[in-house]
Structures are given as C-alpha cells and as structure tokens.
Design goal:
The protein is of the alpha+beta class and about 160 residues long. It has helices at about 20-35, 45-60, 100-110, 125-135, and strands spanning about 10-15, 65-70, 75-80, 85-90, 115-120, 135-145, 150-155.
Amino acid sequence: MSDHTPPPKPPFRIRPFAEGDMAALADLWVATWAATMPDIDFEARRPWFLDHFAKLRAEGAQVPVAETRNGTPVGFVIIHPATRYLDQLAVAPAQRGTGAAEALMTAARELSPGGIVLDVNQDNGRAVAFYEKQGLRITSASTNPMSGRAIWRMEWTPEA
C-alpha cells in the first residue's frame, strides 16, 4: 500500500469566458465589490460594469473564469495582453481562501507573460496584500477618477 495520496482536486477549474457567463459574472462582480466596499452601491454600478466589460473584450481583453465542478462561475479576471493591464479580479466572497484568486492570477500571467499592471484601492488592504504576495510591487499613487479614492499602481514583471 502506498502512503502517497494524490492531492485533492481543486474545487474549481479555469476556463475561457463564454457568452452565457455574462449575467453570472455581473452578479459576482456586484457581490464581490459590495462585500469589499459596502459603502458604495455596486448594484447601481452594474450598467457601468456591463458596458465596461463589453468595451474591454472588444479591445482584446481576455477573461479567464474560475468555475466550480458543477459549472458555476466563482471568479474571473480581466487581462488585456497588449497593454498588460489587469482591469478586474473578482472572486465570490464565499470562495475567498480557496485558491481561486491565485489560479486566476496564474491564468493572467499566462496571457500576459511580459508583465501585469493594475490599480488597486489603497484602502483595500486585503487586495494590496494579495497582490504583493503574488509578486506585484507598488510603483506609484494616484486617485481613482470614478470613486475619488486613493489608488496604488502595482506591477509585476517576469524575472529575467
């Protein structure tokens, strides 16, 4: 009898965006941001997200989706390989700590191997710590034109 047991299968898989995902991803985006910043009405921002998402995809952004074994989306990342810009990373609040965010970052790196640039709210300590753990570093500070909140510009570049 072997004492080597196979590692458990992750509770999700990463796959490309499909048109039928849109409603679920919008719901996930609203829930994720509402849990992160409850003082902002993200349901009211849903139309902005839907328009923004469509525009990014039309410009060439890629959208890896994390889904459960039964096919329910639990997270997504929007990465534009040509600009290296990571626009959104959202994981359902109930899925935090499952490795979904790390798997989505791996997918983003695969799609943008030359590096990743993103903006993150300075008061979102959980996200800042996550991105630092993922190897991104703060390169500058500015203000989000939509919310007026202070943001960090963070970057990851592959090791030479």
